[in-house]
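Design a sequence for this backbone.
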């Protein structure tokens, strides 16, 4: 990551674009004050950020903020999966306790309290899932904004590629359905982003022209 940024900084084309084009293309509201000045705040925590990591549109972020954001998103996905698994197991348990064998057994020993307790636990888990899903969604929207201008191939590149290929099933130029590739409309070297609206589908021969 560090070396990639360093390498790009040496590139004159890249320099030109970070000097002049970062502020107008940033869709946040912070850039209104001085369009030519590079944003000095971390886009994640909004804290001062003189020089940590820089996106291709000039946006800055703290390496640690990004790491925490990515880790938090991963953890929440994991928790949601665990909670869903637990809910499935509890539902199975409730179903089993309502089978004929258990119903007869429960006439003597009772299970009302047990089912009630299991149902209550399911409700708690559903609440936790909702909470985590909300935060996860928020994180992902922020990560997506970062990855739009990621200085190298963005970590969510395969999702972007799939999304574009789902929308465009033929070559934009010749209509071919074979050997399709996803390419940039405005190349990265000319200030293009990884945003979906800057991607299109061409066949391999057309992409080489
Ligand atoms: Zn930060
Ligand atoms: Zn073609």
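Sequence:
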């Amino acid at each position: 990551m560090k070396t990639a940024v360093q390498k790009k900084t040496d590139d004159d084309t890249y320099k030109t674009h970070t000097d002049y084009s970062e502020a107008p293309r940033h869709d946040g509201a912070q850039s209104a004050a001085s369009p030519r000045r590079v944003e000095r705040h971390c886009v994640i925590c909004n804290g001062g950020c003189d020089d940590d990591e820089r996106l291709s549109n000039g946006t800055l972020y703290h390496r640690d903020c990004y790491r925490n954001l990515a880790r938090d998103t991963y953890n929440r996905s994991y928790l949601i999966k665990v909670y869903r698994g637990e809910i499935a197991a509890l539902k199975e348990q409730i179903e089993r306790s309502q089978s004929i064998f258990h119903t007869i057994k429960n006439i003597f020993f009772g299970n009302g309290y047990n089912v009630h307790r299991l149902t209550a636990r399911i409700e708690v888990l559903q609440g936790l899932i909702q909470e985590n899903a909300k935060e996860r969604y928020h994180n992902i929207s922020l990560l997506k904004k970062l990855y739009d201008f990621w200085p190298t191939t963005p970590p969510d590149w395969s999702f972007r590629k799939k999304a574009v290929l789902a929308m465009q099933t033929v070559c934009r130029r010749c209509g071919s359905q074979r050997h399709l590739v996803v390419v940039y409309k405005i190349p990265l070297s000319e200030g293009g982003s990884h945003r979906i609206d800057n991607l299109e589908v061409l066949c391999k021969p057309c992409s080489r022209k």
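The pocket of zinc ion (ligand 2) is lined by residues 171, 173-174, 176, 202-203, 205-206 (CB under 6 Å).
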